[in-house]
Amino acid sequence: MKNFHTIIVGGGPGGLACATLLARQGKDVLVLERNSTIGPKVCAGGIPSAAMGLDFPETLWERSFTRQYISSNWQHAMIQDTDPIIRTVDRGRLGRWMEERAVAAGVTITTNALVQKITPKVVHTRGGGEFGYDFLVGADGSSSLVRRHLGIPIERIGIGINYQTPGNFPEMQWHLNTDLFGNGYAWVFPHQDTASIGVYARRSTSKPGMLLNSLHQWAAQHNLELKSRQPQAALINFDFRGWHFGNRFLIGDAAGLASGLTGEGIYSAIVSGEEAARTILDAGYESKKMIQLIKKHQQHARILDLASGGKLAGKLILESLIFCLRTGLIPCRALEMGIDQPS
C-alpha cells in the first residue's frame, strides 16, 4: 500500500485546483477519478465574472457576455455591464487543461478508480486498490462518498437538465417562468458552435419527468427543437453543512457549495479546492475567501427559501428580484457565487 500526503477523491475543477496547489508545494498528492477521462460533465458551462481572477488562459473561454436577457411571467429585462458578466467554458476542455497543469505540478491522477470504502487512514478502490493518506479531500460531487463517510446527509438538492444544441446563438438568456419551472429557470448559454439549453429547479418542488416536459413545452414556445436530441441530467447539491473536518475536507458540490438559486458551482468548487489546500498546508490559515463564499451561499439559500414559500409568493419574489436587477437596485453581480475581494 502506497501512502500519500493527500488523497483527493474526484478529478473535477475543485479537486484538480486543490491537487495542483498542494503539489506545487512539494506534497505527494493522489487524485482518484471514477470515470475513464477527466473533464466531461453535465454542465451549462457558465462561469461568473468573479472567475476572471482565476489564472485561466484566455483560450479556454468560449464566449463572453456583457449583456444578460431575463424573462419572466410579467417582465423582460436586459442587464448589461462594461465588462463580461458571464463567460462560457467547455467542461471537457477545462478539465483537460487543469489535468495537464496538475500532472506538470507532480500530481498522480488515477482514472477508472471507483472508491468503494474509506477508513480513517485508507481509501479502498474497486479491484483491491488501497491508498493511505494524511489528508483526505472529497471533491466527488453531489453524491459524494466522502460526505457519506463523514455521516453528513443531503436534503437540499437541485436538478439540472441540459441539451447541447448546435447552432449560433447570439444571446445569453434566462427564463424564469414560475408556471412551468416553479422557483427554477430555463437557460440558453451560447458556446462557440453550440448552446447549452436546459432547465434547473429545486428537486423537492420539481420532479425530473415533469421538469423535462416543462422544458419541452417552453422550447416549443420559443421555436427550439429539443425532443430529437438526448438530454443529460445531474443532481446539484446545495446543502452546505461545513467543509473542514479535522484532516478531511469537502469542496465544491460535495460540500454543497453550489448555488441553490442558480445551480452554478464551477467557481465555488475551484475556490474551495484552493482554500482547502492552503488550510492543509497551514493549520493556522484563516480563509477569508471561504467566509465570503459561505456568506454568499447563505444569501442565495434565503432567496430560494422565500421563492419556495408557495406559487404566488414565489412569483412575487422572483418578479421583485428581476425588477431590482432591471432598475439597478441590485447589481447583477450580486447574484454571482463570487467573492468580493481576493485575500
Describe the 3D structure.
This protein has 9 helices and 18 strands. It is α/β, with parallel strands linked by helices and 343 residues long. It has 2 domains: 2-42 and 91-155 and 239-308, FAD/NAD(P)-binding domain (3-Layer(bba) Sandwich); 46-89 and 158-236, 2-Layer Sandwich (D-Amino Acid Oxidase, Chain A, domain 2), CATH 3.30.9.10. Helix 1 links the parallel strand 1 and strand 2. Helix 1 (13-24) runs parallel beside helix 2 (91-105) and helix 1 runs parallel beside helix 7 (266-281). The longest helix has 20 residues, at 288-307. 46% of the residues are buried.
Précis, in short:
This protein has 343 residues and is an alpha/beta fold. The protein folds into 2 domains: 2-42 and 91-155 and 239-308, FAD/NAD(P)-binding domain; 46-89 and 158-236, D-Amino Acid Oxidase, Chain A, domain 2. The chain has helices spanning 13-24, 91-105, 145-149, 178-181, 208-221, 252-255, 266-281, 288-307, 311-327; strands spanning 2-9, 29-32, 46-48, 61-65, 67-72, 76-80, 86-89, 108-110, 115-118, 122-125, 129-138, 157-166, 173-176, 185-190, 194-202, 232-237, 244-245, 248-250.
